Structure formats: structure tokens, C-alpha cells
């Protein structure tokens, strides 16, 4: 079921963000560069970074108007006090940073994360959108598979039951791509706060006047690293997180 929002995509600029991961300086750089009329958030505001509250507060403020979002696996873990079930060492890092970060979030902040849906469908000016983060908590297997693969491995069979959609938006992989099948445009904007495609620039997407683009912006990584180092997080852990930020990649 699609909820019609009665907004027009003509001359509308939609900013698409995912996987902010408590990295305020990366988010701030995007906001300084891109004006926007509407915001779509594809999940994971928290964990790994030093500024969970600032990032959540921004989303809460944005949600007052022209905002659509979904809950990521890390948001889900924070909201319900459970594990995010990341693979390997990432699970340990996410758990430690989550336990540390929850001390900065108010009950209102956590409530906002809890109320974000796992799947969101809506229409803008006759165009049908579906949003999902792409984690195991997602409610749609096809979109989960789309999120976790690269653009080259997609095929039309995966989208057989999605023909009514104009846009499918997913995050989670931290790797950006845009691909089109028939009338359906699939967008993964990559990660704002923790890119994993060996490019440390903050990654995001825009839909501008109906056309989709992946964009990157440099930000002051040193400021994020300094905040991590000044925190009470264990130094070996902040060193690993800093390396991930500088290299734009997951742990080796």
C-alpha cells in the first residue's frame, strides 16, 4: 500500500542519506553542500562514531516536515537493547560503541529510533517509492538482497514483484550504486559516516527534478578522529575506527 504525499517531484530536490553512524562532521559537510526540499533516511544513525546524539537530533528535527525514513539494524539494536549481529569483530566494536553512545541519548531520542519503520512505502506525485535499510531486520527479502549485493549482480528476476515501484532505496552495504531495470531505479547512496568502498569521502544520493545521482564530499576526518580519541572508548578500538575512516574500508 502506497501513501500519497501530494508533493511534486518536479523541481524538488530529495536528499538521500544512509549509514550516518554518529559521524556529525561527515553529515555536516553534506548539509553545507546540498540544499534540499525533502529528506530520506535509510537507517543507521548510531554506532561507530562519536556524535550519536547530534545525528539523531538532526533527524528528529528533519522529521517534522518532508521526511521519510526507516530503521537500520544499529538503530534497531539501540532502540531495543539487543545485538546488531554484525559479522566478526565489527559486532564487538558496534556493541562497545553502542553501550557508550546510549549514555548520550535521551528517552526521546531512543523513542524516535524505535518508531522508525522497517519498511516504508509512499508516493510522491504519482511516483512510487520503497525504502528499507537492508539488514536482517528488514521485512522484504528482495530489497535486502538488493542492498547487500553490488549493482552488477542484480537481475530482473529479483524485481519481478516490484514492477509498480519507480524507486527502491536501500542502504546497509556502505557501497553506493544506481541501477535501472525497466521503470524501476534502485539507489544505494552509500554511507555518510563510514564508507566502505575505499573512498573516505562522505557518500550520499540526490533525486533532483526526478533524476538520481550519487555524490561525494570531503570532510574533516581528523575532527571525527579527535573526538573518538578524546572519548572514554578503549584506545585500541578508536584506533581501528580511525583507520576505517581514513581508508574508507572495513577492518582488514
Compact summary:
This protein is α/β, with parallel strands linked by helices and 252 residues long.
Overview of this structure, please?
With 252 residues, this protein is α/β, with parallel strands linked by helices. The protein is built from 8 helices and 11 strands. The protein has one domain: 4-Layer Sandwich (Purple Acid Phosphatase, chain A, domain 2). Helix 3 crosses helix 5 and helix 7 (221-230) packs antiparallel against helix 8 (235-247). Residues 135-142 have low confidence and may be disordered.
Overview features:
Purple Acid Phosphatase, chain A, domain 2, 252 residues, five-stranded mixed β-sheet, alpha/beta, 8 helices
Please state roughly what percent of the residues sit in beta strands, choosing from under 5%, 5-15%, 15-25%, 25-35%, 35-45% or over 45%: 15-25%
| Category by helix and strand content | alpha/beta
The coarse silhouette is: globular
Strand arrangement, largest sheet? 1-5-6-7-9-8
Helix and strand pattern:
EEHEHEHHHEEHEEEEEHH
Largest sheet: 6 strands, mixed
CATH homologous superfamily placement: Metallo-dependent phosphatases
The CATH architecture is 4-Layer Sandwich
> What is the gyration radius calculated from CA atoms?
17 Å
Give average pLDDT, whole number.
Answer: 89
* Total discrete domains: 1
CATH topology: Purple Acid Phosphatase, chain A, domain 2
- Report low-confidence residues grouped into runs of 5 or more: 135-142
Terminal Cα span: 42 Å
Q: Class, according to the CATH hierarchy?
A: Alpha Beta
User: How many β-strand runs?
Assistant: 11
- The helix tally amounts to 8
Give the oligomer, counting copies of the same chain as homo and different chains as hetero. single chain
Fraction of residues in H or I helices: 25-40%
